[in-house]
Design brief:
Blueprint lengths: L1 H17 L2 H8 L5 H26 L1 H25 L7
Helix pairs in contact: 1-3, 1-4, 3-4
Amino acid sequence: MSLLSWLLALAGFTLLALAMEEHHAWALGREIERPRQRLWRGLGFALLGLSWVAAAAGWGPAVGTVTWCGVLSVAAAPLVLARTYVTPPRRR
């Protein structure tokens, strides 16, 4: 369940990052439309909630919540490192 929780958290954080104007422009090279921004933000938070559900289902609510906090940290790390050290793709 921890792997599923991690994958859901990674997907959620990715959608939340892409819902931000600066990160969206950095990654995709264009501005984000407001309806899509709201959709991605909502889906991102929903995936983070499902990530908690997966952690709580595997470990129980008490230990699952603590595990989920660690999973969130591990899921955010690749996105932070990519934003910091990967140069954006060249635009034509």
